[in-house]
Each structure stands twice: as structure tokens, then as C-alpha cells.
Amino acid sequence: MPPIDASATILLRHDTDPNSPEVFLVKRSDKLAFLAGIHAFPGGQIDETDREVEVRNCDDQQLAMMISGAARELFEELGVLLTHGGELLTRGQRASLLDDLESGRMSWQKLLQHFELHLDANDFTFVGRWVTPPFSLRRFDTWFFLATCPAKQEPHVIPGELADGEWIKASDAYNRWLQSKITAVPPTLHALKTLAGGITPDLVERFLATPNAHGESVRRIEFRPNYICFPVRTPTRPPATHTNCYIVYSSKEILIFDPGSPYEDEQLALASTIDELIAEGRAVREIVLTHLHPDHVGGVNALKTHLGDSVRVAAHRSTAEALTEIKVDHLIEDNELLALAGEPSIKLRALHTPGHARGHLCFHDSERRVLLTGDNILGLGSVLIDPPEGNMIDYLRSLERMRAIPDLTILFGGHGPAIATPYQKIDAYINHRLERERNILAAVESGITKPSEIVAAVYNDVSPKAYAMAERAVIAHLEKLRAEGTL
Ligand SMILES: [Zn+2]
Question: Which residues surround ligand 1, an ion (CB under 5 A)?
Fold first, then answer.
């Protein structure tokens, strides 16, 4: 599926200090399917009427459409009307216009026409085009614009897609990210960092000085400082197409989690990112495996060859015993602490969390409030529990153990984007499994005994393509119900 056209506005405060500009940063609602709870700029998908909107001083149709989308989203999300001809509108009149638009009484194009408002390309400075990495099913090709908030308008978050918003100095927002207080995606972070350098004559140049600002998909994603999420293409289970390799680094050392790709081009891309970190004076401490599945270990031997065979591989004993092709040098125990030398101090506690796989490990950084969840919790797709490697009693126990970790702010899963709503996500996982179990039990009590028939009765919300996986889950639930004496 090609990425969806979208646009976003980096809104500067009127009369802001050019040495330390303020921007309007928003927090996405916790309820969204895509990037819930993440800090970003107002924006969204282009809609059909954006094509029909005329933009002054713009002879490029595509650019005009993108500007229209950016302006419409700004109005819909923050009530800011960045048009000419609207200067005399009162706040109340703008609110009634917004109501016309939201209720569908008038399209954006009709509304602009009717009230003799017009958009001007000179108000919107193009500062980059970013494409969502392929770890997500919903991918956007987003055009970013820099614009200044009109003098007499004050943005306010209109409840819906956004939870919150505020004027903040770009440098302060960037520092909040450095302190792990907010989660942001690469284009947001790049914009904050660039603006933190001030509104200089070369500002636009600095915005565009990365291939990622020209539609080249981002490979190295730092949702949090010192944690690189590096999705690599793998033969994994749909809907995922990639497995997230994580690179955790300090000034001196690097840990690499799950280099899973068996494909040479992907292995080279990963190796070159690791080489960059090494060139800056770091050494690879270990390659760490969360569990044994091929889409998590497929690139281990190639990476070892690239880095030199002295690089150690670490995993849980059960993983080590099952992997015949990979030599594991370090057996990680439950609660063992992996501490990186150098700055900043980074300590990851290993948690043996079986269920998806016997030797499954998660890793907790209490200082940064990060949990690497492996395949126990995913940002995309559902977790396979396939007996005998998979075990539903263990899995629910592991989820409860993860739920009990205090102060988590982010989950980094084996597939899909980071999850900025950790407890909500873990609760949803637990509740979903328990609800399935109740329905399976009800099906059994009504006389259905064959797992395939239970699937047909209980999994009416999934596509038949997922039935084989659902049948494994049913078998795992039946095992659990029997072991607990319910059946
Ligand atoms: Zn797995």
C-alpha cells in the first residue's frame, strides 16, 4: 500500500524571539490507533476537497493541495484560520465556521469561497517531506510547513485527535525529549532540534539538510535518546513485514537486540549504522536475543562475521538450547542487570517473561522508564501463542509481571511503532485474552469440542486467514483451562 498524502504545520508563535522560537506542540490522543500519546505537530491526511482549493502565489497543484490540507487541519485541530480576508472575523465567527466545517454543512473549499477567504503559499514555507518507516501498516507521506500564527488568534486544542497542546520553546521541547519526558517521531524531533538553533537565514536549508526530509524513509528512529529502533525487513508473520532491531548505546558501548533479517541488503544497512556508532568511539558489547524465532535471530551470524567473531551473543538458556545454528556465549538470568560503560549510565534489567516463547526476555530501563517487550507486546499485529513453545498460563503471568512494573512511559515491541500508552496497552492485551478465554469456555460448555470449530464460533472478528493462528491460541487456552481445573 503506498503511503497516504498528509501535511502538517509547525506553527510559530506570533512575534516569537528568533533566537529561541516558540512552537505549538501537541500531544496525540491516547485513543488513536496510530501513534497514540506521542508529541507532534497539528496535521493529518489530505482529503478530496483539498484538491479543489485555490492557493494564491502557487502554480504547483500538488503543493497547493498540501498547503490546503495543512491549513484545514490547523483550523480543525486548533481553531487557527491561516487565511487572508479573515482578519475581521471574530472568535465567535471563526467558531461558527468551524462548526459548519465539522458538521459537514460546508466543505473546506466552499467555506473559503463563501466567506471570501483565501490561502496564500507565502504563508507556508515548505520544510520537508517525511515518509513513515515500513514498520507501520498506516504509512504517511507528510509535507511539513512552517507558518506563523496570526496575531489575534490563539490556538486551542479541539478535542478529538489531540489530547493537549502548548506553546513551548523549541529548545525546551528538545530538552524534554533528551530527558525522556516526551516521545516524538523523527520529523518532530528534527524540527525541534533545527528550530532550537534559532530562526536564521539558513533555517530552511538546515531543515532540508537530511535525505529523510526528501521522502527517503527513516531507518534510524530514536523515539527516545540512546535507543535506536531500526526496523529490518524479515520473513515475519503478516501484517508485519519488518522486525525491530534495537540498538542501545552509551558513549562507550553498544548493545544490539534482535538483528533479525536474513537479507543481505538489510544486514548491510544495519551494519553501517552500527559502524557509525563504532566510528564515534564505541565498542559493541553484545548481541542480545529476546527469543528464538527466526525473524529475531536471522541476521545474528552475519552481524557477527561483520563485527568480528569475538562479539558475544547473549540469550536466555532456553533460547540458547533451542538455537543450533547460533552459538550463545552469555546465558542471561532472570533479573540480571546489563549495564553499559560510559555516559549516560544505562542499565537494563532482564525479565524472563515466557509465554510467546519459553526463553523470552524483556528488558527494563527504570531510569528512562523504557521496556523492550520483544514479541510479548507489539505495536503491530497480534502475538502468537503456539504450544508447546507457547504457553497461555505463562503468557498471562508475564503480562501481569510487565503490568506491575512502575512508571513505564514507553514500550518498544518487536514489530510496529513504539507504544506511548504502556499500561493501557498491557491492560488491553490482558483483557483481550481473558475475554477470548471466556468465549472459548462458553463454546466448550455449549458442546463444541474441536479447536477448529471453536475458532469458527469465537473468532468471528478475525479474517479466515488468521484462523490457523487462532486455532493455536484456542489450543493454548484449552491447555490453560485444563491445567487450572476449569475444564
Ligand atoms: Zn516471536
Answer: 293, 375
Summarize pLDDT for 307-362 with one digit per residue, the tens: 998 899 999 999 999 999 999 999 999 999 999 999 999 999 999 999 999 999 99
Using pLDDT thresholds of 50, 70 and 90, give the confidence band for residue 294: very high
The answer to whether 6 touches 45, Cβ cutoff 8 Å, is yes
Helices (H) and strands (E) in the chain — how many of each? 14, 21
User: Residue 309 has what pLDDT?
Assistant: 80
Nearest to 270 by CA among 245, 297, 236, 293: 245
pLDDT of residue 136: 85
Compute the distance from residue 415 Cα to the ligand 1 centre, in Å.
9
Q: Is the pTM of this model over 0.70?
A: yes
**Cα-to-centroid distance, 296 and ligand 1 (Å):** 7
CA of 2 to the centre of ligand 1 (A): 27
Picking from 212, 189, 241, the residue whose alpha carbon sits closest to that of residue 142 is: 212
Q: Is 159 exposed, middle or buried (0-12, 13-18, 19+ CB in 10 A)?
A: exposed
* Of 301, 234, 291, nearest in space to 261 by CA: 234
Give the DSSP H or E segment for 469.
helix 467-483
Evaluate whether 255 touches 338 at the Cβ level (below 8 Å): yes
Beta bridge partners of 7: 44, 143
Distance of CA 375 from the midpoint of ligand 1 (Å): 5
* Phi then psi dihedrals of residue 311, to 5 deg: -65, 130
Angle, alpha carbons 127-130-131 (nearest 5°)? 165
The DSSP annotation for 370-387 comes to EEEEETTS-SSS-----T
Mean predicted confidence (pLDDT) in 361-370: 96
* Ligand 1 centre distance from Cα of residue 292 (Å): 7
**CA–CA dist 187, 192 (Å, integer):** 9
Q: Is the pLDDT of residue 238 over 90?
A: no
Q: Compute the distance between CA of residue 97 and CA of residue 99 in angstroms, rounded to an integer.
A: 5
Residue 122: is it exposed, middle or buried by C-beta count within 10 angstroms (0-12/13-18/19+)? exposed
Q: How far is the CA of 383 from the centre of ligand 1 (A)?
A: 8
CB 3 within 8 A of CB 136: no
Q: Are 291 and 257 in contact (CB under 8 A)?
A: no
H helices within 152-218, ranges in order?
170-178, 186-196, 203-208
Whether 225 contacts 346, CB under 8 Å = no
- Quick check: bond before 344 cis, omega within 30? yes
Pairing verdict, β 253-257 and 242-249: antiparallel
